[in-house]
Amino acid sequence: MDNVIVRLENITKKFDDKTILKNISLDIYEGEFITFLGPSGCGKTTLLRIISGLEEATEGKVYIEGEDVTNEIPAKRKVNTIFQNFALFPHMTVWDNINFGLKMHKVPEDEATKRIKRAIKLVQLDGFENRYPAQLSGGQQQRVAIARGIVMNHKVLLLDESLCSLDLKLKREMQGELKKLQKKLGITFIYVTHDQDEALTMSDRIVIINKGNIEQLDTPKEIYSKPKTAFAADFIGESNIIKTEITHINDDIAYIKLTDDVELAVPNNNYKKGKVTLIVRPENFNPHKNPVKESFEGVVKNYMYDGAVVKLEVEVGDKLIKVHLYDNDVFEEGEVINIDIDKNKVIIIGDKNEAEA
Amino acid sequence: MKQKHSIEKYLFTVPVIIYSFLLILLPLLYVLLISFFKSDSYGGMIYTFTLSNYAEIFNITYIRIFLKSIGIALITTVICLFIAYPFAISLMSKKETTRNLLIKLVMVPFLMNSLIRTYGWIVLLRKNGIINSALIGTGIINSPLSLMYNNLGIIIGMVYTLLPFMILPVYSAVSKVDPNLVEASYDLGASKIKTFTKIYLPLTISGAFNGSLMVFIPAIGYFFITDILGGGKIMIIGNLIKNQFLTARNWPFGAAISIFLILMTLILVKIYKQLGGKMDDLGGM
């Protein structure tokens, strides 16, 4: 698990005078499912293309399996890409599509046949060998694209927003399958997406990229519970992000202003007085009918039933906060409720944008 | 035809029908008609039915001219293909504004009369022309090359005149190829040449066929290029027809060759379309 399979060293990419990626260094390990997550235009796809060789880095080095491939053409790199629109060759059958890379690498025919059959079995496309891409559904085309990649037996597969053209149900299904397939093959998947749900469900590690920088690199659980920046907190899951300040500190308790009238007391974690960003996940605010210890009051402005979860928007002073509720308490719009907070799950980020909780 | 009373429909189609009838169909029928007449020795026609004009086409002299025409047209087509593809593919990696500009430049020669443009080549190609002077001046060659008044001159002229007709359909086909397919091909280990033969060519074959037709057919008949750059020594079918009408004044024979050429062209179009059609199905485009 701890074998570095892809190493990026100080990668910078400029298009004309626009900087797309800024000095990115990253180690990717053998057998992991790693996701580049970020909004569109953040540079995540460019980073993937730099690994595959379809794009050249302006500065920096790319190593694949320990070899410096910075100046190698894509054909010479031991990685393959699954394109967003699958890029299946429309004039070739499923079989010929999967065979294409093997032919280009002059793999002997009997071995090629064995490998293609195995790949087809893995992606469950038996019986479709002689169809043309146009005769396949989106999900089947996706499988052909994957088979065409894995048949090369490389240790790294690059997937560029590979599920985003599928409809929601199929997408969910394919997420599970991709993850299973990756475990079964034991190879590294580098997956690019802007869909945080997808990133959370499938990844071993997530790289959050914003404006050409790595915002955070961590496991899904760490990223969700301990986002290091306001951007990471906002991008993954829902958050209340409040720019405020720590008014005073009393030994092991820090007092942080929520509104002019409401102050939260949270465990002190080497905080300093001054301006901070307060991040609270909606499920870490707990609404109650009656006042509880250290609760404050708010007015329900919006009530949304969403199956397993009820989403409230509550007005507290001059702020509107998001509160999620998982039990059956019924609140009505306009009702005054009492809210307390899971003190240990509050995230406070100092002015330097560094995590302090 | 279902809308019996739509006057507008006739209003716009009638001029076209009249035009086609008077200026294309009638003359063509006239040519067909006189191709079955006999000629007299004074350039007139004797109005008796004969097939001898068609029989004469198969005279070895004329068969040679036909073969030569087809040869020159084929070489012209192939050279145009070899220029058009790299040009079209390299355009794809350019910015859209650059691309549009270059394609417009391809069409600039259309703005000038092709006869004048062909005369322009004389200045470049003749013994003491610009190309020879430059090559001798720089010491690359000692004596001037024969660049015109031979097959080479004709082919240069043909390629120059007809190249835009190849570039436009080829470029139009190439620009429709999804760039991801090309990247996928590189990603899977294909070289540039393999990517061309396995991806670009099969997906753009209909464009190549269209372009080939648009180059091949005129190349058989462009007599003025052979006249100017071939120095009147070399004949293609176009010259043969022109000579029969204007010099030999044997209109029936000229007409018979014309009809024969039209039939040959139609057969070629048919073959091309059939091949192109089949390739299209494969391409799924």
What is this entry, summarized?
The complex is a heterodimer of chains A (357) and B (285). Chain A has helices at residues 44-52, 94-104, 109-122, 138-150, 168-185, 196-202, 220-225, 230-235; strands at residues 4-15, 18-29, 33-37, 59-64, 67-68, 79-82, 156-160, 188-193, 205-210, 213-218, 240-250, 253-257, 263-267, 274-280, 285-288, 296-306, 309-316, 319-325, 336-341, 347-349. Chain A is of the alpha+beta class and 357 residues long.
How would you describe this structure to a colleague?
The complex is a heterodimer of chains A (about 350) and B (about 280). With about 350 residues, chain A is of the alpha+beta class. Chain A contains eight helices and 20 strands. Chain A has helices at about 45-50, 95-105, 110-120, 140-150, 170-185, 195-200, 220-225, 230-235; strands at about 5-15, 20-30, 35, 60-65, 65-70, 80, 155-160, 190-195, 205-210, 215-220, 240-250, 255, 265, 275-280, 285-290, 295-305, 310-315, 320-325, 335-340, 345-350. In chain A, helix 3 packs across helix 4 (about 140-150). The radius of gyration of chain A is 25 Å and the shape is elongated. With about 280 residues, chain B is mainly alpha-helical. Chain B has twelve helices and two strands; from the N terminus they run αββααααααααααα. Chain B has helices spanning about 5-35, 50-55, 60-90, 95-105, 115-125, 130-135, 150-175, 180-185, 190-220, 225-230, 235-245, 250-285; strands at about 40, 45. In chain B, a hairpin with a 5-residue loop joins strand 1 and strand 2. Chain B starts with 6 loop residues before the first helix and ends with a helix. At the A-B interface, helix 2 of A face helix 8 and helix 9 of B.
